[in-house]
Amino acid sequence: MVKTTLSIIKADVGSLAGHHVVHADLIKSAEGSLRAAKDSGLLFDYRVTNCGDDLELIMTHRKGEDNDEIHKMAWNTFSKAACIAKDLGLYAAGQDLLSDACSGNLKGMGPGFTEIEFEERASEPLVVFMADKTEPGAFNLPLYKIFADPFSSAGLVIDPSMHDGFIFEVLDVIEGNLYEISTPEEAYDLLALIGTTGRYILKRIMRKGDRLTAASVSITKLSLIAGKYVGKDDPVAIVRAQHGLPAVGEILEPFSFPHLVAGWMRGSHYGPMMPVAQRDAKCSRFDGPPRFMAYGFQVKDSKLVGPADLFDDPAFDYTRWKALEVADYMRRHGPFMPGRLGPEEMEYTTLPLVMKKLSGRLKKE
Ligand code: F6R
Ligand code: MG
Ligand code: MG
Fold it and tell me: Which residues approach ligand 1 with their CB closer than 6 A?
């Protein structure tokens, strides 16, 4: 049976008005690169979009996950767009391209990516999530609810093929360890880890029994790769839907709660997750609040049908208003925690400088 691979690869290679939005010329350039890759037979299909300042490549092919040709082609697509960004004088041009060239795999090179290789079911609906001004751990809470919370996903209780539960792969980004945790029986163990969203990140979710991959999240930690802050690791995720997997509505349901995520202003503040239509995926107030987009597709013979812009719906208006109220509340904290992140998680800090300055006039209490 032929297998299709869906690859979502993204990078911030420069943007208009600070870290606000990808310029139309970069989208056009990326579309040209992917069209050429399709004409050459490498890609079966593609869509190019942006979530805020992140250029997003949504691609189908038959080369499998972690394929050098696909990764290199994505790198070249970003490099070309970065040149245009430089010519236009866009902000942070080339930011996420951490080296001069890409020899094959994008791991550790700057761009974020997530991929699933799968045998297409009779009908293959799925949702691609893209986020700006946050980190991969921002998906921990909604993914837990989708695949393990029966108060959110009715199918966990009443669909026989979901009733056994799911297996969660968790990555400890500090130690590099992978854990496989099975729900519902180990749900509390899972929560004990993934509640620490900056460290334990949901990487992949599989259905019990057949181990069908149901979801996958990009886990690039740019700050750790470079050993210093070089840009947000704004994440992307794929969630497959229906017919023995969560329904599209169950996948969207947890996003009705604007939970607090890390990554607002200078990667150093908590802000509410705001679900938005693509046209509103551009951060403004205090470089935020953090935005999430959801594109729904059908995949047929490795071709993409769609997207449906799933958060472009008044059903999420209340969440957006709530998010704005929470944004206001969080901003009132100014430089104080928990509006600001803890010192170990901040991407910008003057603390060492301040400590050095004060060290000369220390007195013991
Ligand atoms: C970038 C981001 C922004 C920047 C901020 C300062 O994705 O989230 O909040 O951190 O605009 O940017 P610089 O240091 O480039 O002036
Ligand atoms: Mg940026
Ligand atoms: Mg971004």
Answer: 18-19, 92, 133, 232, 265-267, 287
